[in-house]
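Troubleshooting log. The previous structure file for this entry was overwritten by mistake, so regenerating from the original sequence record. Sequence copied from the archived sheet and checked twice against the printout by T.R.
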Amino acid sequence: MECVGGKMKIIKKGDIIQSARYFVNGLFEKGFIDGLVGTVLYNNNSYITFFTDKKFVDTFNPFFPSFQVSTAQEIKRITKTKKSERKFGVILRPCELNAFVELVKFKQIEKENILVIGIDCFGAYDNKRLKDIKEPFSKFIEDIKNDNEEDLRRTCSTCLNPVPNINADIVLGYLGLDGDGVILIPQSEAGNEIIKSFEGEDGKEEKREEVIKKIIERRRKKWEEVKERTIKEVHGIDNLLNFFKDCITCHNCKDLCPICFCKECFWESPVFEYKPENFFLWGEKKGGTKMPLDTIFFHVGRLTHMSHSCVGCGLCEDACPRDIELQRLFYAVGEKTREIFSYQPGRDYNEPPPLTTFKEEELRELG
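Regenerated output below.
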């Protein structure tokens, strides 16, 4: 597909990983970046790594099918207090790119001097199953070729964003590519300048669009089924209580969510430091009280606070020790919230999140 800045280009310098490494190495050598945040392998385990030494390019693999933490959340640690004076690149999955844009708007990331490289993402494997796969990346490449989603994370199998949005300077992709190599698509002036400096051949935009359309249509059908089932599951207070019956209020979901960023979190505040007399009072009123406390309050509070910016990454349920499928509830509610406010997370750096704006004439249907 032709994007802002220029046409799709294919670089073939060996297989997909060799070509991606060639591209990143070129970014360093040509002086476009002084550092990079991306996935690096250590002993067959993947880690998000900030590196300035090109030796790390030898183990760089942006497409490794593991998703442990949002890169957007890690970038926040680099630039939250001040902008970087030196240029560095960041490799982001589509959901991470959306979270990145949201965090920029919430003033958690200073994007000046950051080169945003968005990657195609067929998905990632379930973390519990990943360790049992002998050669996960080789299998992943075969699954992409065969359009096989059987071993993907549940959330990835319903993801409607397999490619980056327009807020990436460069797309580094593979969907629609016949054979080895990687696809490069410039989406900004900076991206166009960079890609012009690399030799390559023109790609088949129609083929890429066809592959992407097929993936999205299949996943949209599955997501609509999951959403309908979820809404029925949580309809009414008794059903909602049942959905969260296994919750131990560990707050792991909050801690791993890239959109939950408050330095002073309400859920960790003294508000929830109860005294013995509180429990006796509840006992006298109701006879007894369920523990852990405030389970529904916690989740409903999070829904009202951040559902409009939920990017559907699924890290919340990955973090859940009780295997509650949180993402499908949060993303389903988020769809309703976004529809009401005509808002889409990650769509536009200049589109203010609903919670940061006030309108006198708003939500009139609520009275």
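The longest helix spans residues 205-233. Archived copy saved in two places this time.
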